[in-house]
Amino acid sequence: MNEKKYVITMLVENEPGVTARITGLFAGRGYNIETICGAPTADPELSRITITTVAAPAQFDQCMKQIQRLTNVIKLRDMTGEEAVKREMALICVNAEPEQRNLILERVEPYRGKIIDIGSKTLTMEVTGKENEIDELLVQLLPFGIVKLARSGVLALYREN
């Protein structure tokens, strides 16, 4: 099957149960959600939900049509292309003996990461970037031992003219 990763974003009414209906649509049809992010917009009556999924093109088209039919969905867009600004945030806690900390900082710096907590034997950092950049940083940090990891999932907005 010729599956591809898709990023979709939707503007929805900020009401209880909207996210459950959308995720239920995915689950009921056997579609997997890789990441999902949702939060209110500048208008408190609206929320933006961004979903990353992997599907065959025909399956994805069917999914988009079904989401569009949901009453609380105001606007739906495929953000898969390059015309969108896409970012993800990660919090990463790594083992860090005092003598290793400078080496860890050298590996984090090119990714514009920021140390947000220093423990006696760990460092916790925050990094924001493209999904593949965060993946690359994680490979750089693996030798130290990743203790904990939390990723936001992809957020996307179309570029304005």
TrEMBL record:
It holds the Pfam family ALS_ss_C. Residues 7-81 form the ACT domain. Keywords: Amino-acid biosynthesis, Branched-chain amino acid biosynthesis, Transferase. It catalyses: 2 pyruvate + H(+) = (2S)-2-acetolactate + CO2. SUPFAM superfamilies: ACT-like. It comes from the Bacteria. It comes from Desulfamplus magnetovallimortis. This is Acetolactate synthase small subunit. GO terms for cellular component: cytosol. Its EC number is 2.2.1.6. Gene3D superfamilies: 3.30.70.260, ACT-like. Chain A, domain 2 (3.30.70.1150). GO terms for biological process: isoleucine biosynthetic process; L-valine biosynthetic process.
